[in-house]
Amino acid sequence: RKEVEQDPGPFNVPEGATVAFNCTYSNSASQSFFWYRQDCRKEPKLLMSVYSSGNEDGRFTAQLNRASQYISLLIRDSKLSDSATYLCVASSGYALNFGKGTSLLVTP
Amino acid sequence: GAVVSQHPSRVICKSGTSVKIECRSLDFQATTMFWYRQFPKQSLMLMATSNEGSKATYEQGVEKDKFLINHASLTLSTLTVTSAHPEDSSFYICSAQDTGVGTEAFFGQGTRLTVV
User: Which tens digits make up the pLDDT trace of B79-111?
Assistant: First the structure.
């Protein structure tokens, strides 16, 4: 079983829509959580860290449920430029464990 | 923010040859760097943890004699794919973190290796 699981999608949504991604992790010792964004054939870039209290950065909201070992990302008012693959990440130490990624395509 | 530079960005080599990929932390010292591999439509898979001044730690299933890692300084780690085969064709990415657990990992630009 993979350590981090996410729905691969693809999610095709119209501009302006709200979309939510979910992710589960299996290692209960995980202590750091992130969402990364990866554009095609590029390296991943940090979108936001995920905190137990939940955190928001503009149109993006991330939440963590440690009891359920569940992480989510909500994107409001989707833009065309949000089209990418979103990687859920859990870490129990220095190394990062990546989910397979969820593909998002925002259409005009 | 911290920058990690990876070189080359793309390489095509013949089967049986070796390829060296460099990963440099440009404005911070990285005692630990990580090497990942990503096949098309797959997640990044950790191959090994590169430790400055000591042997790398390899993940299960990764052949240490095939993927040689050297971390001779606090700013440079190299991955050498020896006797490359077409099935080694993949996207290889390194990462490093400036400080401890829970901080952002910075990634190199990745190396797309094609073995023909």
Answer: 999 999 999 999 999 998 776 555 678 899 999
Residue A77 has, within 13 A of its CA and on its CB side, a CA count of: 4
Task: Report the residue of A43, A48, A50, A88 to disrupt the B interface, i.e. the one with the largest count of B CBs within 10 Å.
Answer: A43
Q: How far is CA B29 from the centre of its chain?
A: 16
Nearest CA distance, A93 vs chain B (angstrom): 6
Sign of CA dihedral A11, B43, B98, A63: positive
Residue located via tokens 């070796």 = B18
At B11, is the pLDDT very low, low, confident or very high (cuts 50, 70, 90)?
very high
Q: Do B96 and B76 form a contact (C-beta atoms < 8 A)?
A: no
With a CB cutoff of 8 Å and minimum separation 6, the contacts of B68 are B79, B80, B82
Q: Which two tokens stand for residue B44?
A: 């990044």
Per-residue pLDDT band for A42 (boundaries 50, 70, 90) equals: confident
Q: Which residues of chain B neighbour A94 with C-beta distances below 8 Å?
A: 32, 34, 49, 97, 100-101
User: How far apart, in whole angstroms, are the C-alpha atoms of residue B47 and residue A103?
Assistant: 24
What would the mean pLDDT of B50-72 be, rounded to a whole number? 91
Among all chains, which residue has been given the structure tokens 């990062």?
A96
- pLDDT grade, residue A60 (50/70/90)? very high
Residue A56: CA atoms inside 13 Å, Cβ hemisphere, count? Answer: 3
Place of tokens 């950065």: A57
Cα A41 to its chain centre, rounded Å, is: 18
